[in-house]
Structure formats: structure tokens, C-alpha cells
Amino acid sequence: MLSALQPPFFCELASSQRILIAGMGGGFDVFCGLPLYFALRAEGKAVFLANYSFTSLPYVPRPPLAQAVFEVTPELLVTPGDYFPEYWLSRWLRTQGEPDTVYAFRKVGAAPLKTAYEALVRHLQVDTVLLVDGGTDSLMRGDEAGLGTPHEDAASLVAVNELSGVHKLLACLGFGIDAFHGVCHAQYLEAAAELSRAGAYLGAFSLTPEMPAVQKYRDACEAVFQMMPRYTSIVNSSILSAVDGQYGDHHATSRTQGSELWINPLMGLYWTFELGAVARRLQYYDAMRATQTLTDVGRVIEVHRDGVPIRPWAAIPV
Q1: Which helix (H) or strand (E) holds 173?
Q2: Domain of 225, in residue numbers
Q3: What is the DSSP-derived secondary structure letter of residue 180?
Q4: Which domain of life is it from (predicted)?
Q5: Which one of 99, 217, 242, 285 counts the least CB within 10 Å of its CB?
């Protein structure tokens, strides 16, 4: 009976058998997909991990699947402490008996990123691509008071939306985290409402500490944080703090000292959407399609912002 209240997101995934979960914004975004990864694996589905990488990748020894995507495995020679989230995640996955390849995309524009996604989709024979955003700034269309860190999110959103023959979804985890980068969360909620009217909002659901998939997510984060102590993920440590029931100005890492945080229960919610509808809201979508580099992406965003009225900041009236 209660299955009638299940978010539509799970119905969208019901027929998927081979799913690529990809962090869209770089850094530790792929970690925000780990609860979904473990839950879907427990359902018997084939699930793969990828990430838009901030790490320099030329020394990866295996031939790339395409110019902008590489296989990251535990066999790489990486010095403890080096910034390479995909590698340390790969190492941890092997200790758990999980498939241990994490695919890493170079820091490129939407056009070569699309080519890389096409190669990876063919290689893995996936039927579904699920982009994951650590935070919620991927819903910013271009005229908001603040866009957060839009470059990688926009390149990923456009690249994946241009793919054919696969189901495309988006999940955001970490409501409120992007306030540090100037995102107006009233405008995020406005975007979610607009997508709901369009039939593209697939529901929200909470992570709770007793969920086995959440426990594995925590274990993965803590193991990787130990290997990269200077680069503890602010996003994921904040999400885990929220899942634990922390509230307010709680600091799980010294990296946030000197700033004021608002850890809150909303940070532990996944917000899910049909990716195509989110992409169609992006006001500079057409210009993004031809971008080759992140410099191109930044130029497109800057030109767009210079040419449109920027909406004022709006407070959430609660």
C-alpha cells in the first residue's frame, strides 16, 4: 500500500538495468551518488561510477576510451595525500569487493565532454545516465542572483542532454550548501516548482543513518578523507553531519573554520528531476553546445550574465 507514495524517481529507474552515476560538478560530486549506487546494486542492477574530475589525468597509463575520459583503477601509482578522489574511491571499492573502476572526465567543455560520454555509454552499454550534483546549483538557469559554481555543472548538463538512446535523470543532494557560493535557495525552490509544473520533478527523499547504503556512503567518505586529509569534502562532510542530526554552525572539518555554517535536515534530501527539462531551462544552452574548454564555458556564462537582467536576491519567507 505504501508503495503508492514512492517518489516517481524510483519508477523511472525501475526498468533500468545498466546505470551510469556521474558526478557532474567535479571534486567529490560522485560521492553524492554513492547511496544511490549501493541501493541500486542491492537491487541487482549493474551500476557504474564516473566523475567530472579536477585531477590532472595525463599520466593515467591505460589508453583513454575517448580523449576526455579515463579509467581510474587501484593500480595507479598515487602518493598518499595527493588530491585524486576518483583514485582513492577506487581503492576503497576494491577493499569492499565492489567493482573498482571509476571513470574520470577531463576538465573540458560540453562538446568534447559529449564525445566522452558517448564513448563511455557505448563501452558500458548503459541504458540510463544519472547525473548527481553535490548541492543544488545545477538548477540555476542563468539570471539568478548567484549561480554558485556553474561551469562544470553546465558542461555536464548540456553534454548528457545531447546524448541519444539513453534515459537521463538528475539528482541533487545537499540543499543549502551552495549558500557559501552565493546561491539564492528561494530561487532554487522556484526552479523546482517550475519543473514540478512541467511534470519533470520526480520527488525528494531523505537519507537516514540506519540505511545500509548510507552507512557504506559514510565509510567510503571517511576512508577517502583519511587518504586526502588536506582535501576533506566540505559538501559531503556537511551532508553526513546533517544525516547524523547535527544542526546549525557545526563544523566536521577544519576547512570550514572561520565561516558560519547552517547544517540542517534538508541537506540530507535527494531532489530528483528529469534531466532534459532541467537542461531546457538553461538560458545559455545553445551557446554551451559548442564549447571546447572550461575557458569557453566561462566566457559563455559571462557574456550571458552581461546581457540579461539579473533577478534580485529573495529570502525564503518562513
Answers
A1: strand 167-173
A2: 13-231+267-307
A3: G
A4: Bacteria
A5: 99
